[in-house]
Specification:
Strand order of the largest sheet: 1-2-3-4-5-7-10
Helix content: 25-40%
Number of domains: 2
Order of helices and strands: EEEHEEEHEEHHEHEHHHH
Largest sheet: 7 strands, mixed
CATH architecture of the largest domain: Alpha-Beta Complex
CATH class of the largest domain: Alpha Beta
Radius of gyration: 19 Å
Strand content: 15-25%
Distance between the termini: 25 Å
Length: 260
């Protein structure tokens, strides 16, 4: 295990756990936490032993958004420029990580926290979790969340969250498709780990190819998307894991993946 003052990272059995670790501030993001989050997600992206990620919060909150009392911009040292460069400087704002990521939401999940959740592949929510984008009540627009949320849960429930600034409970999040499961609070991490273990049954490189095609494909023409997908299929099909999967099927045994 390693940690910064604000974020911890551990990896066990090919599952990395990244934890917001500022419970006394309900895991609100300040400049130091931004550094820690970026370090943790960059490590997860580069860690060959980490095939699946779980992100959660320490204490009674997942992440309550930006800490505006921070002397440094919570968005990072480069928060973007007005015209030339977007703010793609973190996982939540668009870093490409094609490994599966599970959000284990243990409490309030607001603003920056919910933006990150919309970039995760799965959401397991504690019965104590709540979700919201309060920015509109502060007089500012939600941007990345507005780009992602309608495609994830549909126009009307997304606009309800984005334009009212209200929070919704875990069960409502499940109803609209934002959360996959709602579980008892004490069983949250067990449920997230159970899902991670199910994901470990799939070949990790094939999963990353699938996720990348799923992310990029909708932004391409149909022909270009199919060509891209066929390229990814051939690349993944040439890996050691693809050969292992075929051998395991012939021999009627479980495959032994190596991410090679």
């Amino acid at each position: 295990m390693s940690s910064t003052d604000r974020v911890s990272y551990s990896c066990e059995g090919h599952v990395a756990t990244l934890t917001y670790n500022r419970p006394e501030k309900l895991n609100a993001i300040d400049g130091a936490m931004r550094d820690g989050l970026n370090e943790a997600f960059d490590r997860f992206r580069a860690d060959d032993e980490a095939w699946v990620g779980i992100v959660t919060g320490e204490g009674r909150a997942f992440c309550t958004g930006a800490d505006f009392s921070s002397q440094r911009n919570p968005a990072g040292d480069f928060p973007g420029s007005f015209w030339e460069r977007p703010t793609v400087n973190s996982f939540e704002s668009g870093w490409e990580i094609h490994k599966p990521v599970i959000a284990a939401v243990n409490g309030p999940c607001l603003g920056y926290g919910l933006t990150l959740v919309t970039w995760c592949d799965f959401v397991i929510a504690s019965e104590r979790a709540t979700f919201g984008f309060p920015e509109v009540r502060l007089g500012v627009p939600t941007i990345v969340g507005a780009l992602r949320l309608p495609g994830r849960i549909g126009w009307q429930p997304a606009m309800e969250l984005l334009l009212t600034g209200e929070t919704i409970p875990a069960e409502r999040a499940r109803e609209v498709g934002l959360a996959l499961q709602v579980v008892e609070h004490e069983g949250l991490m067990d449920a997230a780990r159970a899902l991670a273990d199910r994901l470990l049954a799939g070949a990790p490189l094939a999963q990353r190819a699938i996720k990348e095609v799923a992310r990029r494909g909708p932004h391409l023409s149909e022909t270009d998307a199919i060509r891209f997908g066929e390229t990814m299929r051939r690349v993944a099909g040439a890996t050691e894991d693809a050969a292992e999967g075929a051998a395991a099927a012939r021999e009627k045994r479980a495959p032994r993946w190596t991410a090679g």
